[in-house]
Amino acid sequence: MHPYRVASLVSTVPHTEEMLAAAWLHDTVEDTFVTQEDIRAEFGEGVASMVAWLTDVRPVMGNRAPRIEQNRLHLAAAPAEVKTIKLADILDNVSCIAQYDAQFAFTYLQEKYAALKVLTQGDPTLYAKACQTVLLCAGQIGLSLKRLRQDSGWRLAGKCQQLGRACP
Asked: How far apart are the C-alpha atoms of 4 and 10, rounded to whole Å?
C-alpha cells in the first residue's frame, strides 16, 4: 500500500507526527472524495497545509507537460518537511515503475528527475536515495543520464556534489 510505504520511508528520517500523518494522506484529496477542509477538520491545520502542498495544483488544461511543470513550481515553494514527504513519494512510485510500464516510465522518470531539482531542501538521506533510484530505474529502461540532463536542463550529479550528498 503506497501511503504506508511513503509514511514508513518518512519515519526513517527526522520527522514530526504531522509529517507522518501528511505522508499517509498525501494522495487523499486527489484520489478520493475527501476534501482539504475534511482533512483540516479531522487532523488540524498543520497536516492540512502539508497535504495541500502535496496535492496536485488544479485545474490545468492542456497536455501533461504544463500540468507537471505547474506542480513542480508549486512544490518548489513548499517547506522542507513537505519536500521530505515528496521525496518518499517519489522513491516509492519510481521503485517499480520500470517493471510495470516501461513506456510510461520513460516520461515519468524524466518528470521525477526534473522534480528533484526543487526538492534539495528535503531530507538529505531521502534525497540521495531518490536520486539514486531515479537514475537506476532510468538505466533499466535505457534512458541515459545525458537524455535526462538535456530534457530537464540541469545536472543532478553536480547539484548533489554541491550539497555534499552521496548521489551519482
From this structure: 10
pTM of the model: 0.88
CATH code of 2-163, in short, is 1.10.3210.10
Catalytic one of 18, 31, 45, 69? 31
Indicate which residue of 17, 18, 27, 30 is catalytic: 30
Q: Is 31 a catalytic residue?
A: yes
Pick the closest to residue 133 from 83, 76, 88 (CA basis): 88
Interatomic CA distance for residues 58 and 124, integer angstroms: 29
Structure letter (DSSP) for residue 57: P
Burial 18-51 (b: 16+ CB within 10 A, else e): bbbbbbbbbbbbeeeeeeeeebbeebeebbbbbb
Domain ranges of the chain: 2-163
Q: From CA 2, how far away is CA 24, in angstroms rounded? A: 9
Is 69 designated active site? no
**pLDDT per residue over 110-159, tens digit each?**
899 999 999 999 999 999 999 999 988 888 888 777 767 665 555 555 54
Cα separation, 154 vs 168, whole angstroms: 14
